[in-house]
Design brief:
Blueprint lengths: L5 H5 L7 H15 L10 H15 L2 H10 L6 H16 L19 H9 L15 E7 L8 E7 L2 E7 L8 E4 L15 E7 L6 E3 L2 E9 H6 L1 E6 L4 E6 L8 E4 L16 E8 L6 H12 L1
Parallel strand pairs: 1-5, 7-11
Antiparallel strand pairs: 2-3, 4-5, 6-7, 8-9, 10-11
Helix pairs in contact: 2-3
């Protein structure tokens, strides 16, 4: 596995604090997102490396292993267990071979070579198998994208992966694609790919669970006398009756016009509409006189 300097990826040094890691990640994630760099063929790879770097360096335990073992950090626990076992065997007089003490990643010897000498082909012993590293990625959607089941293609390490996104996926929701992470070591199983969905805010609709909230403007005369108004939903327009004497802030519910429920076909939330009453402006003298007369009644 090629060594990737996660500190260099995020543009920070090894003494960076957890807050420094978070700030660097947020800045680079926004700047380097593939959707914002359509002409950069390496944008997806760069974005993935930024996410991997954040995953490791934002986790104190993973960061400690990475600092000590470099690219082989995910195998640190197995390495420690085997080293302790072999030291124990040496103490009982039945261990033959190299003294590995003091030859970790920081001791001068390349850890990958050391790892191979312990778990690889030495002495005819069978190779230990290890699961590959998990990958993490973000997928950005518009609210209307999450309204219906559809397919998208992701590029992970140069490999295209076609996924089906169910209707009703939520902001921050994570799904797992088994076996689409890093390949295993010595024939071990591949890791998994975890995709976190980021759904952008909509200019007119607010989503809360499976319900949607919006506002609609009616003129003063319709609010006072009653009538009809047309309401926009995410998929169509709906005519609604407005009761006479409707007050500003009145909320009405459109049943079944909200968001589809995740993986529950045929079930949908509701749409809540709050009325705003628009007052007339630039009144003529006659209109002012009529309103004045009304105010006296």
């Amino acid at each position: 596995m090629e060594f990737i300097d996660y500190y260099k990826v995020l543009g920070i040094d090894k003494n960076a604090t957890a807050d420094d890691v978070k700030k660097a990640y947020r800045k680079l994630a926004r700047k380097s997102h593939p959707d914002l760099n359509p002409n950069d063929k390496d944008a997806q790879k760069k974005f993935q490396q930024i996410n991997e770097a954040n995953e490791v360096l934002s986790d104190p335990e993973k960061r400690k292993k990475y600092d000590q073992y470099g690219k082989d950090w995910q195998h640190a626990e197995q390495f420690e267990q085997q080293r302790q076992q072999r030291r124990g065997n040496a103490g009982r007089g039945n261990f033959s071979g190299q003294d590995f003490s003091g030859q970790g990643f920081d001791g001068g010897q390349d850890f990958s070579s050391f790892f191979e000498s312990m778990f690889g082909q030495s002495g005819g012993r069978s190779q230990a198998k290890f699961r590959g590293q998990d990958y993490n990625a973000e997928l950005h959607l518009e609210l209307t994208d999450a309204l219906k089941t559809h397919q998208q293609t992701l590029t992970v390490n140069g490999k295209n992966i076609r996924i089906t996104i169910p209707a009703g996926i939520e902001d921050g929701q994570v799904i797992k694609l088994k076996g689409h992470g890093a390949p295993g070591v010595n024939g071990g199983p591949a890791g998994d790919l975890y995709i976190t969905f980021q759904i952008a805010d909509h200019p007119r609709f607010k989503r809360v669970g499976n319900d949607l909230y919006t506002t609609a403007t009616v003129d003063l005369y319709t609010a006072l006398l009653g009538g009809e108004t047309t309401i926009d939903t995410l998929t169509s327009k709906v005519k609604m009756k407005v009761s006479a004497g409707t007050q500003p802030g009145t909320k009405v519910r459109l049943k079944g016009k909200g968001f589809p429920v995740y993986k529950q076909e045929g079930q949908t939330g509701d749409l809540y509409v709050t009325y705003e009453v628009k007052l007339p402006t630039n009144l003529s003298e006659k209109q002012k006189a009529l309103f004045t007369e009304l105010s006296k009644l």
